[in-house]
Amino acid sequence: MKLNERGLLVVLSGPSGVGKGTVRKALFELEGHDLVYSISMTTRPPRVGEVDGVDYYFVSREEFETRIKADAFIEWAQFVGHYYGTPRDKVEAQLSLGKEVVLEIEVQGALQVRERMSDGVFIFIAPPNKEVLYRRLLRRGTESGDVIQKRMDKAEREFPLAHKYDYIVVNDEVTNAADRILAIIRAEHAKTERSIHKYIELLEVNNHE
After folding, report:
1. What DSSP character marks residue 71?
2. Is the pTM higher than 0.90?
3. What is the SS3 assignment for 173?
4. d(C-alpha 78, C-alpha 48), whole Å
5. Which of 120, 125, 146, 189 has the fewest Cβ atoms within 10 Å of its own Cβ atom?
């Protein structure tokens, strides 16, 4: 029995190239969960193999800026000339249905979400070391040396921000990282602060029977 009927907002975040997307996909392949992926919106062009409405909602810069003015995001950020954001309405709809809504976002965006939705579960995905992060960025083969260096510089500024998260999961091996995250989600549901009200209701029902 799940004592916490409202879904959990699970924020997976960390430096670019740390493997957030790979870990998230491995997490969803595990059994015994009720996870849904919160698709982010972006103005950057799709990479090879990415599908609109599956990997991201790809929109124009003008449309994105209109949504910013309407306060339609729970977070948004701009990096390397492109916007990224999480649509507020879609997240709230899934949480109300009791779903675990997983956000996979950059550090800047995660800290915005922390301010607006403090009851979320914030998990910092970290690389085993900086050299591994650099190799992963190179292996993508989608960006120039200058852009990779910008991402490494940004990562250097983001590593110390891990203390603002609830958990740190090192992505040393993808399956292990996914297993740790699922264990965290299950433990969070059992936290007293999330489950005490439902538990008291159950006790009262049992007393009347």
Report:
1. T
2. no
3. coil
4. 21
5. 146
Q: Comparing C-alpha atoms, which of 14, 7, 179 is closest to residue 104?
A: 14
* Pairing status of strand 100-105 against strand 9-13: parallel
Q: Kindly tell me the number of DSSP H helices and DSSP E strands found in the chain.
A: 8, 9
Chain center to CA of 101: 8
Q: What share of the chain is helix, strand, coil (3-state, %, to 5)?
A: 50, 20, 30
User: In the structure encoding, which two tokens stand for residue 98, read together?
Assistant: 């009791």
- 139-197 residue pLDDT tens: 887 778 888 898 898 999 999 999 999 999 999 999 999 999 999 998 988 787 766 77
For the chain, what are the domain ranges? 9-38+99-208
Q: Among positive and negative, which fits the CA dihedral 80, 138, 38, 54?
A: positive
Fold category of 9-38+99-208 in CATH? Rossmann fold (3.40.50)
State the Cα torsion 133-139-145-146 to the nearest 10°. Answer: -50
- Rounded to whole angstroms, the Cα distance separating 39 from 165 reads 21
How far apart (Å, rounded) are the C-alpha atoms in residues 130 and 118? 29
